[in-house]
Known about the structure:
Blueprint: E1 4-10, H1 18-37, E2 43-48, E3 58-64, H2 66-74, H3 76-86, E4 93-98, H4 101-117
Antiparallel strand pairs: 1-3, 1-4, 2-3
Helix pairs in contact: 1-3
Amino acid sequence: MADAGLFVGWGPPIAGRESRGLDVFGEAIAFYGSCQEGGQIESFETVLLGAHGGDLSGFFLLRGSEEQCAALRTRDDFQRITARAALVINDLGIVDAVIDEGVGAQIAVYQEAIADIV
């Protein structure tokens, strides 16, 4: 079961590049699907957010082990799709995440840190 993830978030499209943005969005979904089929990640979710006055329009949550997520970040095809996305959308961000089984272990680390400080 996954214990790590990559949060790939984005803002609104760059004005005039909306159509290309949809193309790159489709490419990203196909790429993450092939990564799932090939076992490079366990799964992924696509989330589109409603209007809320903030900069985040949606995100992908890629799920896997820490090793899978670290390896994905260094792949040329991941870097290529990320570069293409950065040319058509604002506020692209990729953040390491702790999920599922990893949350308990991270909470334990936090509890130990509290005990050391207090």
